[in-house]
Amino acid sequence: MNSVSFILVADGPRFEDSATILVGSMRLAHPEVACINVYCPEQKLLQLSGFFREAMAVLGASIVPIIDQPSPWASPYPHGNKLLAASQARDCDVSVFFDTDTVLLSPISDSVSKGGTPEPTVFAVPEGVPTWGRHIEDWVPVYRHFGLPVPDERVRMCRGRRVETLPYFNAGFVGFAEAATEMGLRFGELWLETAIEIDQALDIPNKRPWLDQIALPIAVARSGLKMRVHDETYNYSLYRRREPAGEDVRLAHYHIPGSFRSEPACLAVYRRVLDLLPDELSSVLRKRAIPYEMPGRAKNRV
Length: 302
Hints:
The chain is built from 11 helices and 12 strands. The protein has helices at 16-29, 50-59, 80-87, 109-113, 136-145, 187-201, 211-223, 257-261, 264-276, 279-288, 290-293; strands spanning 4-9, 35-41, 62-66, 94-98, 102-104, 121-126, 155-156, 164-165, 169-177, 226-229, 236-237, 251-253.
């Protein structure tokens, strides 16, 4: 496998429990990955609990500040923290970003190993439904702004009627080579730059909260990298599913604790994560993560 970094954002204390479960699942699925970076806005670092800091140390993850700076966004955009994290420099061949409300059920080694040299790529999974850009006309001004042709490629959405659309991906799982692109920037930097440009210079409707997803295929087109489209087992939405996830699912995207606790595979991984932690930390996580196991219980912050 290439040198790999797994990255996620813990945007303050309310993301600590989901981040701990995710990082634990990373350790279970990929004990060989040396670099797990948990990014946190600099102004929220002091709000992180002692439990979370200790748990990350035990699991071999680093808490990395997103340096406080003037906001690049036209108006507040919390989703932008993933782009700020992706843009940070890392000493690796491939970085893989995960939304914090995901959990690894099995390894993604084959995906990661195809992400770096000799054919640098970006890899992701199509969105479930076309939350933005249902019609080609929606995309024309965006591609035109960057001097790009509207692509001939189409991807098939993963939910509902599984319609075909222009390239549009769920940004909860995105891998990318870290080498410099044709634009001279690393892909994470280019993704951020593209999103800022769309935000500040393009008058298109309803771009929030989808700005990161609108910018992703545009950044790929600008970068000269190849796009590797994965099937939904690499970013499998559990929301409103009637059946348990199949054995082929690698990454479960649960969105809300209710979907997590309804999925036996997620609960099995969660219990294994508890076993990774020393007793005192495991006991704290059990109390904090009550909504992930049992409905109708108030959250007990520790």
